Amino acid sequence: MLKVVDTTLRDGSHAISHSYTVEQVRNVAAALDEAGVDIIEISHGDGLAGSSINYGFSTTDELELVKAASEVVKNAQIGVLLLPGIGTIVDLEKAYEAGARVVRIATHVTEADVAIEHIKYAKEKGMFTVGFLMMVHMASPEKIVEQAKIFEENGVDYINLADSAGHLTPNEVKERIEAIKAACHVPVGFHAHNNLGLAIANSITAIESGVDYIDATCCGLGAGAGNCQLEVLSAVLNRLNIENKLDFKKLLVASEDIVRPLLQRPQQIDAAALMLGYAGVYSSFLLHAKRAADTYGITVVDILEELGKRKMVGGQEDMIVDVAYHLANK
Questions:
Q1: Could you tell me which residues are beta bridge partners of residue 84?
Q2: How, if at all, do strands 102-108 and 128-134 pair?
Q3: Whole-angstrom Cα distance, residue 46 to residue 14?
Q4: Cα-Cα-Cα-Cα dihedral sign, residues 71, 76, 77, 82
Q5: How large is the C-alpha radius of gyration of the chain?
Q6: Given this model, what pLDDT does residue 40 score?
Q7: What is the pLDDT, as a whole number, of residue 295?
Q8: What's residue 67's pLDDT?
Q9: From the candidates 14, 44, 108, 118, which is the catalytic residue?
């Protein structure tokens, strides 16, 4: 049966400037658990230890949030995201102590080898461990298979492909998923962003291509134009008679009554979000680029277009200001 990973409390953190409170996390986690979600991912949007001047400070320490969720969840597993170079093994150990039993270790699509040490540690702790390849539009299916095999050889429980820029079309998703399924012997998952309005279509394509895990968020809350919208996904899965254990009506309550009131801005495909998807830019760059545009008196669309031309990737947020300065002084 398809398993659902909800990242409202991780990727959704980008959309609200990492301002989740303990009470909000308790309410959201309990509702998601009640609605049948398998894994609830909680951390700063950029993963463990992401709270910083480079990525944006969190209002509440993420370990407090993990602990709060673990106290109310009865059936789902609590997970965290870790990006080697941002989070460390020490951070992972603290997250485990706070109640996390799942870790998704994320690298750029061509850099799976930087996660080996973290994977081995997580497995030694008995954690359910996932190799998470970001920005998969930037590599061919053959290159993705090469990187996925590094994860598989080091014992991950599944491999997750992330369309971090929301740049892929359904055919491109199908090619990548089918290549991994043919070459690897562990389950596969998929994470969509909605910058081109294709998150639901791409997620359904991934499911039909054989993924075992799918990511989504209530109200689509997430970086850029957001993620695959969980309550919509639930409705479409039911319409297509795809077996799942989500409770559609409970998800409607969770999204409308609990998550939607937390939104600080509409989760929509505006010009900036569309440029993210079109130019293939990391979705979490959006708010950073908007701040730089305001500072230097230029358009956020021009900044994002230039970032796409330069093929900037996650972890290069500091370059956004440099790009804005360059464009303003042309």
A1: 87
A2: parallel
A3: 8
A4: negative
A5: 18
A6: 98
A7: 87
A8: 98
A9: 14
Helix (H, G, I), strand (E, B) or coil at 272: helix
The C-alpha atoms of residue 114 and residue 3 are separated, in whole angstroms, by 27
Q: Under DSSP, is residue 76 helix (H, G, I), strand (E, B) or coil?
A: coil
Position 316 scores a pLDDT of 77
No. of H helices and E strands in the chain? 14, 8
- Per the DSSP assignment, residues forming a β-bridge with 128 are 102
Res 92: pLDDT: 97
Please tell me the distance from the alpha carbon of residue 64 to that of residue 82, in angstroms, as a whole number: 16
Q: Provide the pLDDT for residue 313.
A: 80
Q: CA 10, 161, 79, 231: dihedral to nearest 10 degrees?
A: 60
DSSP state of 304: H
Residues in the chain: 330
Q: Please classify residue 318 by burial: count the beta carbons closer than 10 Å to its beta carbon, then call 0-12 exposed, 13-18 middle and 19+ buried.
A: exposed
CA 97 to chain centre: 23
User: Is 14 known to be catalytic?
Assistant: yes
Contact (CB, 8 A) for 237 and 244 = yes
Residue given tokens 């799918």 in the structure block: 214
Residue 53 burial (10 A CB sphere; 0-12, 13-18, 19+): exposed
Q: How is residue 228 written in tokens?
A: 């695959």
- Give the tokens for residue 232: 């919509």
* Single-letter amino acid, residue 109: V
Q: What is the mean pLDDT of each run of 10 residues along the chain (330 residues)?
A: 97 95 98 98 95 88 97 98 96 97 97 97 97 97 98 98 97 98 97 98 98 98 96 98 97 97 91 91 84 85 85 79 81
Task: Extract the tokens encoding 134.
Answer: 């970001």
How many other β-carbons are positioned within 10 Å of the β-carbon of residue 64? 15
Report yes or no: 9 and 28 within 8 Å, Cβ to Cβ: yes
Please state the separation of Cα 99 from the chain's center in Å: 20
Q: Measured between alpha carbons, how far is 23 from 218 in angstroms, rounded to an integer?
A: 17
Q: Which residue has the tokens 């209530």?
A: 218
Residues 6+ apart with CB under 8 A from 10: 41, 42, 43, 44, 45, 47, 80, 81
Q: Of all helices (H) and strands (E), which one includes residue 170? A: helix 170-183
What is the pLDDT, as a whole number, of residue 324? 79
